[in-house]
Specification:
The complex is a heterodimer of chains A (283) and B (322). With 283 residues, chain A is α/β, with parallel strands linked by helices. In chain A, 35% of the residues lie in helices and 22% in strands. In chain A, helix 2 links the parallel strand 1 (32-38) and strand 2 (60-64). The longest helix of chain A has 25 residues, at 2-26. Chain A is elongated, with a radius of gyration of 24 Å. With 322 residues, chain B is mainly alpha-helical. Chain B is 70% helix and 1% strand. Chain B is built from 13 helices and two strands. In chain B, helix 12 runs antiparallel to helix 13. The N and C termini of chain B lie far apart (55 Å). Chains A and B meet through helix 3, strand 7 and helix 6 of A and helix 6 and helix 12 of B.
Chain lengths: 283, 322
């Protein structure tokens, strides 16, 4: 059995050496640990990018989680995370949230949003003014905007939602939402918004374009339909960038990762498959 | 090692080391059977104490942590405003939590109004009326109902109950305190009725016999004798159900509408302590008054449920005396 023993030891040694050699040979020497926290809307994108990035750089550890947009830049400020994913540019003031000093925003994707109504609503098209009036509570009946005689049920996301911030800035141009009333309710997530608008007659809400299903109707805004093509050709204005926030300019693995997610290969490949729009599509 | 069991009849009382009477002397080795058993005994005792202390530590840890963060609210908001103002607009620095506190109590009360009579009737049916085969079928069914995750109830409420309420009453939305109370009723019904069922079944047969002997009907016996005799057990079930209703989050958040306005109508979107916390906690900045206020609301909930548990213990003791 001695020959067997020595043979197995030799085989093991060869295997060990060859794997370590191949690992070093195939991948870069980039090392490090990247922690990403923040927006749940951007999480699928982050996870996909992390998987691909880890194949290129096996020595980089990436852990990604999501707990809501605002936790992204907060975690970065506290030093818990290297990258904070957020649905708005957190280095600027937005309605309801102050800017985060000393953080740099990196655009990673374009997210289109749509105003949606229940299928029983006859209205197809609203102007910015009409949207503002509806969401601020000035117009409360569909007949005032060209529909049937029925109360408008406004479904809103809770304060702090990235979708809400974007919709308020881009579709309502900063107009304040109503916050009370018999025909007003708030929901916790995009999934709840979907269920609420699908099941509540005469309701209006808004969500990421990718969440829109055939059980609801996405409205034209100022006569422009919410499609990716219209976002790209510049006629549909209700969209926002998804951002990665870093503390100062990033370096090392974090920098490489952000560059990877912004690269043409990822933007035109995996990112498009996940139904985001590449940042290069809009100049 | 020789053990002389036959020559030693059992000695009364536990012996000091906590070991059986059979092992009195060791073999003299450093880790013989006696020492080993002594070690196990002591170790096990320590493990038990450590577990008990651990549980207490966790409870007080949670209480302390919630309180420590929650009490910071009062640096920026006066307790009067927090407890009695109905204006909750954190984005404008107005933190009046009365809407939620009132909502929690109103919702619980409404739930109990619907669920207690129903549960007691179910319990009476199970314990007094139903034939044995039906009883043996229904009891496990009720037990299974207790185990259904609350999010399932919430989802069914959102997709079935609310459209139904809308059709029946002709309201626009259907969201509100009544929808939430109905969902909660379905949730707490099995809890209350099973505990009440046990309490009613435990009423001695002689009470009923005496009642029948006096010429009472079955109805009179049940409502004048059996239920009063089982009162403290039923109350115990009611409080258990109430504790569940107060702390329930997922089912409530899906049907209540989540709007910070006073629940002064059955069909008006409103909010309670639990639903407001879960709606907002993910989106608040750390170390903000808003965050602290949410912790304070969590602490309030904790205190309310602790008080209820104390009440349950008192009732149990009272039940044991009578």
């Amino acid at each position: 059995m001695k020959w067997f023993k020595s043979l197995s030891v030799a085989a093991l040694a060869i295997a060990l050496v060859s794997t370590s050699v191949s690992a070093v040979g195939a991948a870069s020497s980039l090392k490090g640990k990247i922690v990403i926290n923040g927006s749940s809307a951007l999480l699928p994108l982050t996870l996909q990018a992390a998987n691909e990035f880890k194949k290129l750089h096996p020595k980089v550890k990436i852990s990604a989680s999501a707990a809501g947009s605002i936790t992204g830049p907060q975690s970065v400020r506290k030093g818990i995370a290297d990258i904070g994913a957020v649905d708005w540019d957190a280095s600027q003031d937005v309605p309801g949230f102050k800017k985060f000093e000393g953080q740099v925003a990196h655009k990673v994707a374009i997210i289109p949003f749509a105003a949606v109504v229940n299928k029983n609503v006859k209205v197809e098209d609203l102007t910015t003014k009409q949207l503002q009036d509806i969401f601020s509570g000035k117009v409360t009946n569909w007949k005032d905007v060209g529909g049937d005689d029925a109360d408008i049920i406004v479904v809103n996301r809770a304060f702090g939602s990235g979708t809400r911030v974007n919709f308020q800035m881009k579709a309502l141009q900063g107009t304040e939402f109503i916050s009370k009333g018999n025909n007003y309710k708030e929901v916790k997530s995009s999934g709840d918004m979907k269920t609420a608008v699908e099941t509540t007659p005469n309701s209006i809400g808004y969500m990421d374009l990718v969440y829109v299903t055939s059980n609801m109707k996405a409205l034209k805004i100022n006569k422009v339909a919410p499609t990716e093509a219209n976002v790209v050709n510049g006629t549909y204005k209700v969209w926002g960038y998804g951002y990665y926030m870093t503390k100062g300019e990033p370096d090392g693995a974090t920098k490489e990762f952000i560059e990877y997610i912004q690269s043409a290969k990822f933007q035109n490949g995996s990112l498009k498959k996940l139904k985001f729009i590449p940042i290069s599509a809009i100049k | 090692m020789q053990l002389d069991t036959s020559a030693r009849p059992s000695i009364a009382g536990p012996n000091a080391s906590g070991l059986g009477t059979s092992i009195k002397a060791g073999s003299g080795k450093s880790f013989d059977r006696k020492n080993r058993l002594l070690f196990y005994n002591r170790f096990f005792k320590l493990a038990c104490i450590a577990s008990a202390v651990f549980v207490c530590l966790i409870l007080f840890g949670i209480l302390f942590l919630m309180f420590r963060t929650g009490v910071l609210t009062f640096r920026d908001v006066s307790p009067m405003t927090f407890f009695f103002s109905t204006d909750w607009s954190p984005e404008k620095d107005r933190y009046g939590a009365f809407v939620f506190i009132f909502g929690t109590f109103a919702l619980t009360l409404l739930t109990l109004l619907i669920s207690v009579p129903l549960s007691v009737i179910i319990a009476v049916f199970l314990a007094e009326v139903a034939p044995t085969w039906l009883r043996n079928l229904l009891r496990p069914v009720l037990d299974l109902l207790v185990g259904i995750p609350s999010v399932v109830y919430g989802f069914l409420g959102l997709t079935i109950l609310i459209p139904l309420l809308r059709d029946i009453t002709g309201t626009n939305m259907g969201d509100g305190i009544l929808a939430a109370a109905i969902v909660l009723t379905i949730m707490v019904l099995p809890t209350i009725s099973r505990v009440s069922d046990d309490a009613i079944s435990a009423v001695p047969r002689k009470y009923r016999d005496a009642s029948y002997a006096l010429g009472a009907t079955r109805f009179q016996t049940i409502f004048k004798v059996t239920i009063p005799a089982a009162r403290s057990g039923i109350l115990y079930g009611v409080i258990l159900g109430m504790a569940r209703a107060i702390g329930e989050t997922m089912a409530v958040v899906m049907v209540i509408g989540n709007t910070p306005q006073l629940a002064d109508a059955l069909f008006k979107p409103t909010s309670v302590l639990t639903s407001n916390i879960v709606m907002q906690i993910a989106n608040v900045p750390f170390d903000s008054t808003w965050n602290n206020a949410l912790y304070m609301m969590g602490f309030l909930l904790l205190v309310i449920s602790l008080l209820m548990i104390v009440l349950v213990r008192l009732l149990q003791r009272k039940g044991a005396h009578s």
